[in-house]
Amino acid sequence: MKLIFIRHGDPNYENDSLTEKGRREAQLLAKKVQKMKIDKCFLSPLGRAQQTAHACIDAMGITGISYDWLREFWPRIHRPDAPDREHICWDWMPEDWTVHDELYDFNKWTDNPVFKEADVNSDLQTVYDGFGKLLSELGYTKEGRYFKAERPNNDTIVFFCHFGVIMLMLSYLMDLPPMPLWQSFLAPTTSVTTVVTEERRPGKAAFRLLGFGDTSHLEAGDEPVSFSGRFCECYTNENERH
Q: Exposed/middle/buried for 167, CB within 10 Å: 0-12, 13-18, 19+?
């Protein structure tokens, strides 16, 4: 089975929609998606993901199913360096989060006091439970650190959603803690990330990353990759987010 995770186009977060640039990105993405053999499609209920998805699948006659757990992962924390304000849970300064060994542990990262205060584990389990149930329905059930291939298949499953939850799904598939994934990788807007099962023994499968954050459709259309989600490349770059 092949899983394809697609981040929404360049966002207007205030209106939960796409910017003009985001709409251009979605149209270029559609040219890539329409060449795929898609067996099932799942969507975040949020507007920016829905608009991106429908730009791609409506012409193909595909109906996407929306799941609430595919919305952006949005628990808010009081960050150690700014305890008087709330931040999205993975937005920490590197020198602050990297000193906590539990954040590198798949089973312990939500034990960090900052995450415990915000009850991040509750939101996390909603995503893991929803994703795990869906994977079981698709034929693969997690058993420890690998998956039972109960109904192995060559289907292609596409998800239109958000960066935060994409990284959580990758963490579930590969038993990796999400904090280093959130901090060390960035899936640009409309980027395509592909994961495939490998079944080297009958009935036992693992998931392997084939490609992360592909934006070749934007390059083909001379559309610059959005800065959305990134921080300043150099601290003195005043026109970039700090």
A: buried
Instruction: Report pLDDT digits (tens) over 106-120.
Output: 999 999 999 999 999
Mean pLDDT of the chain: 96
Map residue 156 onto helix, strand or coil. strand
pTM for the full predicted model: 0.96
Secondary structure of residue 18 in the 3-state scheme: strand
| pLDDT, tens digit (0-9, with 9 covering 90-100), for 209-239 | 999 999 999 999 999 999 999 999 999 999 9
Residues 138, 1 contacting (CB under 8 angstroms): yes
CA nearest 139: which of 147, 207, 77?
147
> Tokens 């994977």 appear where?
135
Q: What is the DSSP string of 25-81?
A: HHHHHHHHHTTS--SEEEE-SSHHHHHHHHHHHGGGTPPPEE-GGGS----EEE-TT
The sign one gets for the Cα dihedral 42, 43, 49, 50 is positive
Residue 105 neighbours by CB distance under 10 Å: 14
Tell me how far apart the alpha carbons of residues 101 and 122 are, in angstroms, rounded to a whole number.
21
DSSP state of 215: -
29-86 pLDDT, tens per residue?
999 999 999 999 999 999 999 999 999 998 888 999 999 999 999 999 999 999 999 9
Neighbours of 197 (CB within 10 A): 19
- Residue 182, token pair as written in the block: 């959130």
Nearest to 210 by CA among 185, 193, 190, 188: 193
How many residues are given for the chain? 242
